Amino acid sequence: MWRHGYDLSKETALKSGTLYPLLMRLSEQGLLESRWQEPERSGLPPRHVYRLTATGLALARDQELEAVAAERAGALA
Amino acid sequence: MNASPSRFRRLAVTLARHAARVLPGAPSSWAQAMRHELDYIADDSAALRWAFGCMLASYKARFVHRPRFSLRAAWRQVATSGALMLLIGLALQEHAGGQTEPPRPAFDETTCDLPGVSPEISPRLRCGTVSVPRNYDRPDAGRFRLAVVVIKSEQQPSWPEPVVYISGGPGQPLTVYAAHQARAPYAPRRDLILVDQRGTGKSEPSLCPDLGSKLLEAALAFAASATEEAFATRQATYLACRDQAIGRGLDLRDFGTRVTAEDLEWVRKALQIERWNVYGESYGTTVAMTLAALHPDTVRTVVLDSIYPPDPVPLWSTIVNDARDAFFASCVRDNVCSTSYPDLAETYRETLARLDQKPLLVTVPPQMRQPDDRVMLTASLFEAVVANLLYYPTAYPNLPRVIQVVHDGEPQGLGQVLGPVLAAQLAAAAIQNRATNAAVECRDRPHYRQDLPAGAHGLDRRQLYGVCARWSDLGPSPLIPVGTRVPILVLAGQFDPVARPASSRHVADLIGSSTRFVEFPLVGHNVRQLSPCGAKIAADFIDHPAQELDTSCTDRAAPIPFLPKRQ
Prior knowledge:
The complex is a heterodimer. By secondary structure, chain A is an alpha+beta fold. Chain A is built from three helices and three strands.
C-alpha cells in the first residue's frame, strides 16, 4: 500500500524533520521503496509515495512479535 | 502574528528550497519529494511547519553523511528507535490494506536423501526445506520450496557464524554435492549452509529440466552452433521452454539475482542465524555481492572466488582468448612443454583452420549416446572444448597433447585422448539447469537483450544473445557493495576463462578499501576448489578477517606436469 509523506507524518505523529531522515534511512537499508506518483490534478507536481519492501515488512513483523513476546514475558515474570 | 497566510506559504517555499540545497548530493529525489509534498498541504501554517521540518531533515542528512561527525552516533540511536516505530506503523497500514500476510521464514526439517553420504558424514547433515515468497512484493503470489542442507562442522561445538556457500551457473544444483562439501569445508570450525537456488537442484520450480540435454543434442547434431541454422534452432529451443514454463503458470519475472539474494536472506532468518560468512564462487559472486549490498548487517565476511564480471562485459570469446594466450605463454616458459610442443599457439591456430576446412569424426564413449558413438568435431566445438579445459588445472597437463592430437587428426589418438574429454564436458554440462540459467541471466544482464554483437565468435553464439529480449523483461540489476565495511576477499586465477584477473581486481577496487585481492598463478576458474593454497587463504580470512593475510603460498605454485607428445 503506497503512502504519501504528509499522510505518514500525520498518522505516525512524526514531524517532517524526523520522518524524512527515517524514510531515507529505511530506503538506504532496502526496507522501503519509493516511486513518483502522477499528480492528482493538473497544476500540481508529481508526488513521492512510499511502501515497505518485503524485507521491511518481514522485519517490522519480527520487531512487532518481539515486542509482543517481551510484553508477555514481562507479564509472566 | 499579523503575517498573512500567503507570507507563510512563501516562507514555507523558501525554506523547502533551502532544504533541497542543504541535502547532500545523492538523494536529490528526496529534496524534490519534500518540496512537492508542500503543494498538497492546504493549511498554510501546517505547510510552514512542514517546510521547517524538511530543512531540519536536510541538515540531519548532511551531518549523518559526514564521516566522524560527533553527533552521528547519538543521532543514529534516535533514528533507530524512530525507525522502529515507523516500520511498525507502516507494517500495520500494510495489514490494514488487506494484503495477505507473507509466510514467515521457517525451516522444515526432513530426512536427508543425498548421494554418496558415508556413515561418518551422515550425522553431521540436517536437511530440509524453506518456503520463500515467489515474489517478495506480492506475498499472495505463492511460494517456492527451496532445498537446504546444513552441514555441521566436524569438530563440535561449531564456531558461531556459519558459512553459506553460493555456487555458480546460474542454474547449478548444490545440495546434491553435500557429501563432497562436507569433506572440503570452507572454514573447518564453522557449519556450512547449502541452498539450491530457486529453479535448480531439488528446489522449486522445476523449470524445463530437459532443456540442457535438448540444447546439447542440438549443439552436437549441428556441429556446435556455428551456423545460422544452429543458432536459430537454439533460440527456438529456449523459447519453447519459455512458453512451456508460462503455460505452467510460472512468472519468469520471479527470477534474477536480486530475488535469489532475498531468498538467501529468508533462509538465514529461517535457520535463525544472526550473521553468516558468504562464500560466492563464479556466478555465486554476483549473488554474494548483491546480498552484501542489500543486507550488510547480517554478513560478517564475503569471499568472492573467480568473479563473474558484472555488466558491461566484453565478448566472452575475447576473455577466453586472453586466458588461452596466457596458458600458451606458460607452455613456452616450461621445458617439457616447449620441447614437446615448440609453438603451441601456432599449432592451435593451424588446428582451427584445418577443422574449418574439414571437421573430424571423433569416436566417443557409448555413454554419450551419439549416433554410431561418433561426434563431428568442428572448429567451433573444439574452441569450446579448449575453453572448458581452461577452467580446470587438472586438465592443464593434458591440454597441449589434446591440441596436438586434433592437429594431427590421427583417429586412434582422437578417440583415446579427446573422447573422454568430450564425455566429461557433456556430463558437466548436463548438470546445469539451462532454463534457470536463462531465467536469471535474462533478468540480470542487459547485454543479452541484443542480437549477436559485431565481432561475435562461435563461443559467443552459445550464449543468450537473441534469447533474452524474448524471454522476459529486464529485472532490477545485481548490486556491487561499493564502499561497504564488510571485509571482502577476492580470489582470481591466472588462466580463468570467465573472468580476467584484471577485471576481478577492478571489481575489488570498485568495492573499496575493505577488499583484499589475491591472484593465483597456474589456476583457472574457481580458485578454492583447485588450489589448496587458495583454500587455506580463504579459511584464514573467514576465521580472522581483521588479520594480515599470509599469501606466501601463491609464490610456491608447483609447475604444471605437462604430458609430453604422444608417441
